[in-house]
Known about the structure:
Elements (H helix, E strand, L loop, with lengths): L10 E7 L3 H10 L5 E6 L2 H16 L7 H7 L3 H19 L6 E5 L2 E6 L2 H14 L6 H5 L8 H17 L4 H19 L17 E7 L2 E8 L2 H9 L16 H16 L2 E2 L1 H10 L4 H14 L2 H9 L6 E2 L5 H18 L4 H13 L3 H14 L4 H17 L3 H14 L5 H12 L3 H12 L16 H4 L4 H9 L8
Parallel strand pairs: 1-7, 2-4
Antiparallel strand pairs: 1-5, 1-8, 3-4, 5-6
Helix pairs in contact: 2-3, 2-4, 2-5, 2-7, 2-8, 3-8, 4-5, 4-9, 5-7, 8-9, 8-10, 10-11, 10-12, 10-22, 11-12, 12-14, 14-15, 15-16, 15-17, 16-17, 17-18, 17-19, 18-19, 19-20
Amino acid sequence: MRVRMRRALLASIVAVMAVAPAAAAQGRRSGQISSLHTAVDVTRERVDRLERWLKAVDAHEPGELDAALDDVASWSTGDLRMLWVDVKVLTVLLRNRKATRFMLPDGTRTIDVFYPPSLMRRMRALACAVGGRLTDVDCAAMRAPLELDDDLHRLAEHAGADRARTGEDNYVLRRAAILHGDVEILAQAAGVAAPPSTPVPGVGPKQVRVDTSDGVSLDVREVGIHWELGRTVLDQVKPKGADRAEPGRDAMVRDWYRASAAWMQHVESHDTQHIDRGREIFSTDPDILFLSGALHETYARPAIQSAAHAAVVPTGFSIDILSARVELRRAESFFRGAIAHAPDMAEAHLRLGRVLGLQGQHADAIVELRRGLTLLGDDDELRYDGELFAGAEEEALGRYDAAHEAYERAQSLFPTAQSPLLALSQLARRRGNRAEAFTAMQRLFELPPPGAEGRDDPWWVYHKAQARNAQALVDAVRAPFRRGER
């Protein structure tokens, strides 16, 4: 049974930083885009914030609106961008505590990060704690334990215990991804006000979000890079026995991308960059391919097309939404990929059938829809969708009796749904049967008013029904990290 989700008043689209044409041209000639260098001198306040971040990562109870989450959620966009730089350096030191130079790719530039000797000593001590290795010879020699307070010693103990249990040093990386995901998920659900945007020129990634409603762009604003920070730390996950970071071999990383992508679609927070990164790491995962297809199917909707094309975003940003025709082709490709790796994924067949039909490929569409309907279990709402789409394709092929039967089957599954009645009326008019068209509309007008108890039409939430299990996926990712559930 599909969990009914509250209808969102707003949808949002993330705009990404675009590569300037000149830099892109140079990149094509040289094989990389690294023509610009930005020197960053780190201050004591920056390392203090990194320590606060580490304490929050260790203290946060996944799924809870606690003090640790509140602290990180309150940081400005500029704070988060500078944190991104220091977290990147910390992940280098985690695996190589002797590193002395830190050059970080950042879009069209490279960031050279410089720490004064006293702060570099603190950074190395933090790396010892993050790895749970305060007793290692080099950490003891640099007197790392003396650099840390009680909270950071506690983090080191937790990291060491986790390494002893798993044979990995990914404790902070995994918990950090959970924390930043929770900031996005829980703070938004609780209506926590977004922190202010503060200018930090030239350093770290930026995200701009376009809020939309009914195809109209309402607001364009810079937002925190919490999902980017989650991706950044998980990129450094090194499975047991590996000699380098290989997130594509890690089940938790895969599940995090599945859950976060589903949650974004559940709340209509559309972020192409996020799911693209998940697909880069897990190129054959059928669930991520399926969600990729569903996202681009959504991008083909008239309301999204209208809002994306009308939105005015700041210079240097772009919205990666193309024409409806191109987005449908993208969706088709991803659904076919999902089916190639999971041939019995009924919902992928149904959605593939729909996007084929929207492209005018009605004969191929009905084949996929019939296949999906055959594979379905007892999910009445998916069966309703499939019968509704099958009716439309049969109608497009001129097989009106078959179309009528499909619409009636959809109506029988949800007697208070209006979409099959509208389709039956339209079909009757096409066949020249005005009386039958009138009867279908009369049945519609006799339904309870919209919003009344029992009035339900799965078509109203089809655009996000692919994410109906989002909360369950998120809960499953959090569960191993909840201290009360270990």
